[in-house]
Here is the input.
Amino acid sequence: MIVAAGESLIDLVPDAPPGTGPLSALVPRRGGGPYNTAVALGRLGAEAAFCSRVSTDAFGEALLEGLRAADVATGLVQRGPEPTTLAVASVGADGSAGYSFYAEGTADRLFELPGPLPEAVRAIAFGTCSLVLEPGASAYEALLRREAERGVLTLLDPNVRPGLIPDADAYRARFVGWLPYVSLLKLSEEDARWLGGSPEEWLAKGPSAVVLTRGGNGLTVFTGDLTVSVPGAPVTVADTIGAGDTVNAALLHGLGDRPLSALDAPAWADLLSFAARAAAITCSRPGAEPPYAAELTRPA
Here is the structure.
């Protein structure tokens, strides 16, 4: 089983061509980085679960319906009466998305450290707003440390949202403190520039591999022994919402039961190409709509 741990929210996405302007009509869509990762895992055919705290309001019910539709287990979901977080997306002419968040007093911020996860859990993914917004951020951090210490493969996608981070230097220091507990660090070029440092520096602090996403230019993995790059899959971009989350899911699903240390250069190339194709399909559709297994050929 693969667990995605973190926030769910409602993305309010412009119902107009990219670059139309800030007063376009907004369409509600299910979202949140970890939530999108969970849905992508389920659609790809992985045994997946979502670990979070979800509102009992109408948006929260819709979020749970989306998980169930993707065959994602919800037994690790906590519930609360507070409202669902909202994220207003602005989509540029190139399809890139920026966000404004309405997260004060929302349900997902009140996540509490759960009891032991099922023994079947082999990997768990963390990232985005859930590692910023307290008090839930500290609970997710405790979960990361606990599961890493018991040998579960951990993926971290910081998916930085600067507008939510009141103290950038404190966040960067906290990020470095997570790395000894991270097996696979995946981040975008934009995240890397904002955080500072390099793949080599991050590898020295704990992760077995660092995957850098480069938009339409593809993906690159860095390990202590090799560097492998693959091109992006050609696609007409509707927007990039959920693309990085789809990469998270494709990496964990495509990895299977293999340890990261078992992947040689050809195996990494296959895995990264799989992730690139999956992300391209997500980019071809408005909002975070990751692909189903039937839309992809899984690498051997």
